[in-house]
Amino acid sequence: MEVETIDCDVCGAKISDFENDLFHHSGKLNGKQSAHIHLCSKCESDLRPPFFDFDAALEKKRSRELVTLILKTAGAYDEWLMSNRRGSSFSTFVNEFGFDGENSSAIFAKVEETRKDLLSRCIG
Ligand SMILES: [Zn+2]
Ligand SMILES: [Zn+2]
Question: Taking the CB of the first residue and of the last residue of the chain, which one, N or C, has fewer CB atoms within 10 A?
């Protein structure tokens, strides 16, 4: 028997439980106004509608995730530099510390900003 599914419009998940895992909204998504947006229960609880601008909510969620990544990476990298007695450079960050995420040069810049800001405030 073929199970009918609907795709979540945000994450693409296949939704088959229409009673518990399907949420209907209207609003702005991917730059377009839509009268009918489907969300899976995970996106529903991540994004917490009701509101009408899904793009803004997704942007906010991505920015929040980026902040977490920068803070975690800055902490781990600073600890690594201390215990390996190394000075910081982009090539050290990527090749020796081993950061292998996306946008490594932009992340490195933010990590350095964060570390230097804290170091100058706490140690001077
Ligand atoms: Zn989803
Ligand atoms: Zn619907």
Answer: N
Per-residue pLDDT at 1: 61
Please report which ligand is nearest the Cα atom of 9.
1
62 Cα: distance to centroid of ligand 2 (angstroms): 25
105 CA to centre of ligand 1 in angstroms: 30
C-alpha 3 chain-centroid distance: 32
Rounded to the nearest integer, the mean pLDDT of the chain is 92
pLDDT, one tens digit per residue, over 10-33 is 999 999 999 999 999 999 998 998
**Secondary-structure breakdown of the chain: helix, strand, coil percentages, each rounded to the nearest 5:** 50, 15, 30
Mean pLDDT of 99-123: 94
Structure token digits, residue 37 = 């947006």
Q: How far is the CA of 18 from the centre of ligand 2 (A)?
A: 9
